[in-house]
Design goal:
Elements (H helix, E strand, L loop, with lengths): L4 H12 L10 E5 L8 E9 L2 E5 L5 E4 L5 E2 L5 E8 L2 E8 L2 E10 L5 E9 L5 E11 L7 E10 L4 E7 L3 E6 L5 E5 L5 E4 L7 E9 L2 E8 L2 E10 L5 E7 L7 E7 L1
Antiparallel strand pairs: 1-12, 1-20, 2-3, 2-11, 3-4, 5-6, 6-7, 7-8, 8-9, 9-10, 10-11, 12-13, 13-14, 14-15, 15-16, 16-17, 17-18, 18-19, 19-20
């Protein structure tokens, strides 16, 4: 939640006098899925027998369902192969490197879609998450708006936060796939790392002593906003994530390691 203007003015003075080494956000934070509320929304609209429009992010992608790598949003390619009428294989690559591989399966009544989703890191290690989606709105087959939640994940996210210059912070995943060094001056700072998208930037500001607001964009398109809040005992980090087009935010709860 956003802080009041009174809290903001008081907190900014306190933060300005603190060194980056004593920043309360610095540490290793492990996602606790049981305390988090994580959802996903995707839209599929099949405009021809073998061609569909996929809304998996902020920009629609029109893909022919022949299993070939085709231009996708923000650089990486997308390929979709029809393995059966109720089973699709979805793959995304960056510079020829496989980023994700997913198997989409429809239930017998076509009202439930299961997504066996595997992300592949640059070092070859993987993380598997199984999603269950429910159909929302009209459509047949895979054509629908799908609302889903993760059922299980093999490797919960670990977020590493480190000092960056004066009053800045560095945000990275524990395997170095994406890193963002940022100062809280409202300017855009690029992400880096083998799995980071081209044009991916974040800006931020401190809204209170234990609160940070981050805005993420890709090539000028708003991807999401994140509100990071520390608990009073500094042992829990909560991230409230707002994604354009969705009415309900996601909440990720991390615990200090």
């Amino acid at each position: 939640m956003l802080r009041t203007l009174l809290a903001l003015s008081t907190a900014c003075m306190a933060i300005a006098s603190a060194s980056a080494a004593t920043d309360p956000f610095v540490g290793d934070w492990k996602l606790n899925p049981s305390r988090s509320h994580i959802s996903d929304q995707m839209k599929v609209n099949c405009v021809e027998t073998n061609k569909c429009i996929f809304n998996l992010g902020p920009v629609p992608e029109t893909i022919v369902l022949d299993g070939t790598d085709q231009p996708g949003e923000f650089g990486p390619t997308l390929a979709v192969a029809v393995e059966a009428p109720d089973r699709w294989k979805v793959m995304r690559k960056k510079d020829g490197h496989l980023l994700i591989s997913a198997i989409w399966s429809l239930s017998s009544d076509a009202n439930t879609l299961t997504d066996d989703f595997t992300s592949i890191r640059s070092d070859g290690t993987t993380n598997n998450i199984k999603y269950t989606y429910k159909r929302s709105g009209a459509g047949t087959g895979f054509t629908a708006t799908w609302i889903g939640t993760p059922e299980a994940m093999t490797s919960p996210l670990v977020l590493q936060i480190r000092p960056f210059e004066e009053d800045g912070l560095s945000f990275a995943d524990s395997r170095g796939q994406d890193t963002n060094n940022i100062k809280f001056d409202g300017k855009d700072y690029p992400h880096s790392g083998p799995n980071s998208l081209a044009g991916f930037v974040s800006s931020g500001r401190r809204s209170a002593a234990h609160s940070i607001e981050l805005t993420d964009k890709v090539s000028g398109t708003l991807l999401r906003t994140r509100q990071l809040e520390l608990s009073p005992d500094l042992k829990t980090l909560s991230a409230t994530i707002q994604i354009p087009g969705r009415t309900e935010p996601d909440t990720q709860v991390f615990e200090r390691q």
